[in-house]
Amino acid sequence: MESNIADKDIRRYIAESAESHVGPDGLTCPVIRLKTTSSISSTRKVPAKDVEIMALQQGIVPLRYLRNIGTIGLDGQVKLLQSTVAVVGAGGLGSTVVELLARQGVGHLVIIDGDRFTEQNLNRQIMSTEKNLGKYKVSVAAKRVKEINSATTVTVFRERLTVANAQSLLDDARVVVDGLDNLSSRLLVEQACRQLDIPYVYASIGGFNGQLMTVFPGDVGLSSLYGSCSDTLAEQGIETRIGNPPATVALIAALQVQEVVKIITGVGTPTRNRVLLVDVRECAIDRIELGR
Amino acid sequence: MALITVRFYSLWRSYLGIDSATLEADQVDDALTQLETRFGPPLRQKLEAAGIHLDGKIQDYSLILLNGTTLRNLKSTDLKEGDVLHIFPPSIGG
């Protein structure tokens, strides 16, 4: 009861604090500024995420998400803020995924990686800098998320995902995103996601090429590409020869984030039961329908 | 003999300079033999020119799907008219 009264009070305060924002098309929209959200959060002892959700539920847009709303709607933004997304691997794909999910306004990120930044990461891993070489990737990622979006909470696991810990680390996720660099870990994550009934967004890159697919439990998934018997599979592909250039990584990571947004908001169609092959060298995107 | 289509993607398409080709074969093994004979040497030549040496035949260093399923999972190796082989390099990095 007390909580309801407090919520009602906060909602009223949010409504009173709203400002009218005039867009480039001349249309007005009620918005709430970051400064106001932070102030309400700290004075009322409510997480910033909850303040933003309460605002959106009244049709008031946190100004920071104004340019999201046209594509996903108020409800879509609320769903993102209410969601947990796990990112396995915080290197090339993973760190860009984390950055974009924080900007998109996902409410809770679980970031899993046991590695530290090394010099050969600098070409593509967006959170690696000359200054933070040697630091744990998850620690840098958590700090970066806080700098981007104080409403996004972060849980980090400074360890590798294994058969033993996979289910407990991924259990709370609405979606799991692949930021990995080898096949056996990917198969492990896919298996854990199937057991937990969580959609999994797979991607990998090599040179100018990237691959992507979203695997819901029951979908064909990685076995349609790599086979059912993982014992005979190579751990790595042609990227060991042709490299992992930054633009390919950023592009494919961005597509992964779009898959997450589609899954959570229900806007658009996830890339299920087909693999997307992206070739930036020739600016070509192909889709192959996968069989069972 | 079944007339089938082979579609090349990603780096293989760039290096071979073609999107697709047709083959006549009744069995997957026969199709792979023809694939290697026609496309293995030019593909390896391009790869070598780019400083990439890959051992084996084209099927040893490619992902190959028949109608959307990896050859590794196939129960039958018979081919039928209109079948499509998709072939591209494995890219597993991140």
Summarize the structure.
The complex is a heterodimer of chains A (292) and B (94). Chain A is an alpha/beta fold and 292 residues long.
How does this structure look, described?
The complex is a heterodimer of chains A (292) and B (94). Chain A has 292 residues and is α/β, with parallel strands linked by helices. Chain A folds into two domains: 2-67, no CATH class; 83-289, NAD(P)-binding Rossmann-like Domain (Rossmann fold, 3-Layer(aba) Sandwich). Chain A is built from eleven helices and eleven strands. In chain A, strands 6-5-4-7-8-9-10-11 form an eight-stranded mixed sheet, sandwiched between helices. A three-stranded mixed sheet of chain A has the order 1-2-3. In chain A, β10 and β11 form a beta hairpin. Chain A starts with a helix and ends with a strand. Chain B is of the alpha+beta class. Chain B has a single domain, classed as Ubiquitin-like (UB roll), CATH 3.10.20.30. Helices cover 31% and strands 26% of the residues of chain B. Chain B has helices spanning 10-16, 28-49, and strands at residues 2-8, 20-25, 63-66, 69-70, 84-88. Chain B has a five-stranded mixed sheet with strand order 2-1-5-3-4. In chain B, β3 and β4 (69-70) form a beta hairpin. The chains are: A alpha/beta (292), B alpha+beta (94). The A-B interface holds A 89, 91-94, 178-183, 186, 203-211, 223-229, 232, 234-242, 244, 249, 274, 277, 279, 281-282, 284, 286, 288-292 and B 9-11, 13-14, 50-52, 54, 61, 63, 65, 67-70, 72-73, 86, 88-94.
Shape of chain A: globular
Indicate the CATH architecture of chain B: Roll
Radius of gyration of chain B in whole Å, from Cα?
A: 13 Å
Number of domains of chain A: 2
CATH fold annotation of the largest domain in chain A:
Rossmann fold
The separation of the N and C termini of chain B measures: 42 Å
Query: Could you describe the largest sheet of chain B, including whether it forms a barrel?
Result: 5 strands, mixed
Spell out the CATH superfamily of the largest domain in chain A.
NAD(P)-binding Rossmann-like Domain
- Approximately what portion of the residues of chain B adopt beta-strand conformation? 25-35%
**Topology order of chain A in helix (H) and strand (E) letters:** HEEHHEHEHEHEHEHEEHHHEE
State the total count of DSSP E strands of chain A: 11
